[in-house]
């Protein structure tokens, strides 16, 4: 979609008009407002506002039930039965509550909609401070998720290849990540949330299917003969850091808050029928699906394998082969949708900056270059750091906890100002404390695991090179 008004006025002229509203003539005011509306209608978040409540349901399922569900049995092995069940239930309740607050705050100001997370932050904390508080954390979450999904998508493709072709030559994970990324070079050109609805619906269905396969296959396999429910680590420091990292894994599993306002922006709203009603209906359905996916997969997976479970439950399962292969392909389809759900707000930010700040002409070429560059960036980082569970732990606490647990509560206290010492006041402060603890503790465990994994990779590489050198010497002799 080309915006023709840019051809009638130079960027400098539009900039001067925008920055000096008192000096604008009526004609300039009309041209400037028409230009602003045209840009708003072109940007991904504002382009379409005709979604129904079920769009909210499957978009939220796609956003939340992703790679995180596959790591929950591993998190249980770091937490143990008592702490693990408590953390899972509390996280489900707290994040549902904070998500409800964000849905309510979407239209807290009559006649205005906060279509983006940072717009709500700007209203709560101020124009400049709100940007600095929200945008960096939201970008870490969304970009971090896209990187992790690149890794997980590549791992699932690799697992599928190894299962269906056991005797085939081993192919490095790097190439599978590149194959997974190639699909996103195409899908990223879909302009807005409405255009990715089909992909998102397929992803939501796949998430329910593969998580069900994971726990049913675990239950069918039964409890291992040598199952051990003691914590995975054997030393006290290892248990402590493992516990911290597991908190990050759980926080990662509830990340839908980072796109909830953008999803709600696609729903029409009138004074009689505000968008929060269909949005909340969709959220309730989504959270029921989340519970159906998360609790059986995490509990049954841990029950079956104990502390021997891998950081991806589908990697632990090997039989029946056809079912595991199918589940891994379902993961791939789901991650295609999840990546796009979290990439869309990033695309919106990138295109907003390019058009409003650098005065690029909105159109196909701008999106082709900007979005392709972003997909290539996430692919490169994923290839460089393919540490699945450790990335979940680190990002889970560092940025997921603030945007999911306590930022919505702080904004609620700032904007709605509930009565001091009321139930709402106590609840929000409790969520803030929990979120701060998650933000501080879980990255410590995740960072430690990343360092250990890097050392392990280094040792493996060293021994592999040493073995290859010995073989070469034997061949020469």
From TrEMBL:
Single Gene Ontology MF annotation: amino acid transmembrane transporter activity
Pfam families, sorted: Aa_trans
Residues passing through the membrane, by range: 53-72, 79-100, 173-190, 196-217, 283-305, 325-347, 368-388, 394-413, 425-445
Residues in Amino acid transporter transmembrane domain copies: 50-445
A GO CC term assigned to this protein in UniProt: plasma membrane
Membrane topology, record value: Multi-pass membrane protein
Family under the similarity heading: Belongs to the amino acid/polyamine transporter 2 family. Amino acid/auxin permease (AAAP) (TC 2.A.18.2) subfamily.
PANTHER family in alphabetical order: OS05G0424000 PROTEIN-RELATED
Protein name in UniProt: Amino acid transporter transmembrane domain-containing protein
Source species of the chain: Urochloa decumbens
């Amino acid at each position: 979609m080309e915006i023709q008004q840019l051809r009638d006025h130079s960027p400098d002229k539009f900039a001067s008009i925008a920055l000096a509203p008192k000096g604008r003539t009526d004609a300039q005011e009309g041209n400037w407002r028409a230009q602003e509306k045209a840009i708003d209608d072109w940007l991904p978040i504002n382009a379409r506002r005709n979604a129904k409540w079920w769009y909210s349901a499957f978009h939220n399922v796609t956003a939340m039930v992703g790679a995180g569900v596959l790591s929950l049995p591993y998190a249980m092995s770091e937490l143990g039965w008592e702490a693990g069940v408590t953390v899972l239930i509390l996280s489900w309740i707290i994040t549902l509550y904070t998500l409800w607050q964000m849905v309510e705050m979407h239209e807290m100001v009559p006649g205005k909609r906060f279509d983006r997370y940072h717009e709500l932050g700007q209203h709560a904390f101020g124009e400049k401070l709100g940007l600095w508080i929200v945008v960096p954390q939201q970008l870490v979450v969304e970009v971090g998720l896209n990187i992790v999904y690149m890794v997980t998508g590549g791992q699932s493709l690799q697992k599928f290849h190894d299962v269906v072709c056991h005797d085939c030559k081993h192919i490095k994970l790097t190439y599978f990540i590149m194959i997974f990324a190639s699909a996103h070079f195409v899908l990223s050109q879909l302009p807005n949330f409405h255009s990715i609805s089909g992909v998102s619906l397929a992803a939501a269905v796949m998430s329910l299917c593969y998580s069900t396969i994971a726990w049913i296959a675990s239950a069918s396999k039964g409890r291992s003969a040598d199952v051990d429910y003691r914590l995975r680590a054997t030393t006290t420091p290892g248990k402590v850091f493992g516990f911290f990292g597991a908190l990050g894994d759980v926080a990662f599993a509830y990340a839908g808050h980072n796109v909830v306002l953008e999803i709600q922006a696609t729903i029409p709203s009138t004074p009689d029928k505000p968008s929060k009603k269909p949005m909340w209906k969709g959220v309730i359905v989504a959270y029921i699906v989340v519970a159906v996916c998360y609790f059986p997969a995490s509990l049954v997976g841990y029950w079956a394998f104990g502390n021997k479970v891998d950081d991806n439950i589908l990697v632990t399962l090997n039989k029946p082969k056809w079912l595991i292969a199918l589940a891994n392909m379902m993961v791939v389809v789901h991650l295609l949708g999840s990546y796009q759900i979290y990439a869309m707000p990033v695309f919106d930010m990138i295109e907003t900056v390019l058009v409003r700040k650098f005065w690029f002409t909105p159109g196909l070429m701008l999106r082709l270059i900007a979005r392709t560059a972003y997909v290539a960036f996430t692919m490169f980082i994923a290839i460089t750091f393919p540490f699945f569970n450790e990335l979940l732990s680190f990002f889970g606490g560092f940025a997921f906890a603030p945007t999911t647990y306590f930022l919505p509560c702080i904004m609620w206290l700032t904007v709605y100002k509930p009565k001091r010492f009321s139930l709402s006041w106590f609840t929000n402060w409790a969520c803030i404390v929990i979120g701060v603890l998650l933000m501080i503790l879980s990255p410590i465990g995740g960072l430690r695991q990343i360092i250990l994994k890097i050392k392990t990779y280094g040792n493996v590489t060293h021994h592999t090179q040493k073995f290859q050198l010995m073989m070469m010497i034997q061949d020469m002799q």
